[in-house]
């Protein structure tokens, strides 16, 4: 008789040694262990997603500004502001904050950006030639994911001198015609940017949503900050914020809630397939806050930027919870085989 500690390489011998039923159970245990490892890794990812703060910006139509870098046009005063820049290499807000505004007309998308700077005389501004490494200076970096596929994007960079650089993804050979004017003032520098829709091959419609981010390299402290927290690199389109060419309320109702409802429906079918009450309880706990939000939305005529981002974050947290619950249910059903 073989000792239990001996290695058994032949599958038929293994089956004889363990017995057919035990051998099948062993294979199931192995499958479950492998699946459990996948669930664990996915769970880590989902937990991280729950902590992401969604950034949404409603881009309005407006009369074109006069490009002089001074941000004194009516379009900038009347539009929502892009604020709350956070450090990408650490935690917390940037010391030198950035404020942006975006509007568009029939031909261009315009950005007006103000960069707080305590030491404007020390601004690093060495690049003077188009498509030189402008990102090495104090600069602004603009990202548009016009497909909203969380993968492809256009990248525009400008320094305080108005020197420009552009690329498609990280293809530096790509070029586009766009206009920039900058100004340096007391405790800040600013930029006005006009990018033709023809340059990026996309034009917003009534329900258009683009991925978007605005980043800043401040070389004096130094610090690198962004509107959407992309982590260690600005070039992370899956973590871009969203630029919506539709009012916030319509955006939540037409884009955010339908994706949530689909995931909720898929999870509900799995919950109904198991008798354990604890899963139904978890499902109800995830569903409850969103049901409250849906009732509140019925009474709203519009939403502010802050309200839309907060609602989006709560719905996304519930959706992440459904994903986690789905994985837990799949594991439960696998172990019952």
Secondary-structure map with pairings?
Elements: H1 11-18, H2 20-50, E1 56-58, E2 60-61, H3 74-78, E3 86-87, E4 98-104, E5 108-116, E6 139-145, E7 154-159, E8 164-168, E9 179-185, E10 188-196, H4 197-200, E11 209-218, E12 223-226, E13 241-244, H5 248-272, H6 277-298, H7 305-335
Helix pairs in contact: 1-2, 2-7, 5-6, 5-7, 6-7
Structural class based on helices, strands and sheet pairing: alpha+beta
| % residues in beta strands | 15-25%
CATH topology of the largest domain: Immunoglobulin-like
- Extended strand count: 13
What is the overall pLDDT average? 87
Largest sheet composition? 8 strands, mixed
Write the CATH architecture name of the largest domain: Sandwich
- For the record, the count of structural domains works out to 2
Task: Provide structural commentary.
The protein is an alpha+beta fold and 337 residues long. The protein has 2 domains: 34-51 and 249-335, no CATH class; 56-246, Immunoglobulin-like (Sandwich). The chain has helices spanning 11-18, 20-50, 74-78, 197-200, 248-272, 277-298, 305-335, and strands at 56-58, 60-61, 86-87, 98-104, 108-116, 139-145, 154-159, 164-168, 179-185, 188-196, 209-218, 223-226, 241-244. The strands form 2 sheets. Strands 1, 3, 6, 7, 8, 11, 12 and 13 form an 8-stranded mixed beta sheet that branches. Strand 11 (209-218) and strand 12 form a beta hairpin. The longest helix is centred in the first third of the chain and has 31 residues, at 20-50. The radius of gyration is 26 Å and the shape is elongated. Mean pLDDT is 87; it is low at 1-8, 13-23 and 39-52.
């Amino acid at each position: 008789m073989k000792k239990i500690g001996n290695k058994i390489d032949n599958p038929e011998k293994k089956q004889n040694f363990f017995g057919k039923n035990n051998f099948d159970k062993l294979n199931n245990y192995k499958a479950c262990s492998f699946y459990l490892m996948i669930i664990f890794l996915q769970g880590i990812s989902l937990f991280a997603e729950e902590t992401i703060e969604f950034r949404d910006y409603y881009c309005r139509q407006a009369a074109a500004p006069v490009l002089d870098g001074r941000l004194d046009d009516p379009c900038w005063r009347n539009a929502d502001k892009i604020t709350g820049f956070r450090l990408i290499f650490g935690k917390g807000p940037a010391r030198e904050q950035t404020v942006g505004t975006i509007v568009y007309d029939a031909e261009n998308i315009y950005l007006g950006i103000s960069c707080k700077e305590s030491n404007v005389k020390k601004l690093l501004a060495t690049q003077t030639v188009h498509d030189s490494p402008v990102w090495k200076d104090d600069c602004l970096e603009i990202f548009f994911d016009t497909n909203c596929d969380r993968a492809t994007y256009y990248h525009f960079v400008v320094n305080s001198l108005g020197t420009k650089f552009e690329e498609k993804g990280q293809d530096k050979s790509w070029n586009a015609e766009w206009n920039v004017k900058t100004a340096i003032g007391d405790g800040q520098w600013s930029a006005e940017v006009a990018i033709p829709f023809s340059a990026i091959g996309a034009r917003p419609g009534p329900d258009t949503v683009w991925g978007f981010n605005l980043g800043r390299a401040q070389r004096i402290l130094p610090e690198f900050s962004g509107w959407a927290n992309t982590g260690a690199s600005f070039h992370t389109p899956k973590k871009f914020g969203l630029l919506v060419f539709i009012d916030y309320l319509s955006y939540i109702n037409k884009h955010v809630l339908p994706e949530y409802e689909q995931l909720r429906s898929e999870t509900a079918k799995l919950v109904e397939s198991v008798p354990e009450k604890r899963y139904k309880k978890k499902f109800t706990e995830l569903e409850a806050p969103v049901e409250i939000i849906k009732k509140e939305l019925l009474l709203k005529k519009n939403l502010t930027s802050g309200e839309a981002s907060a609602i989006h974050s709560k719905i996304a947290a519930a959706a992440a919870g459904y994903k986690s619950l789905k994985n837990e249910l799949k594991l439960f059903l696998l172990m019952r085989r």
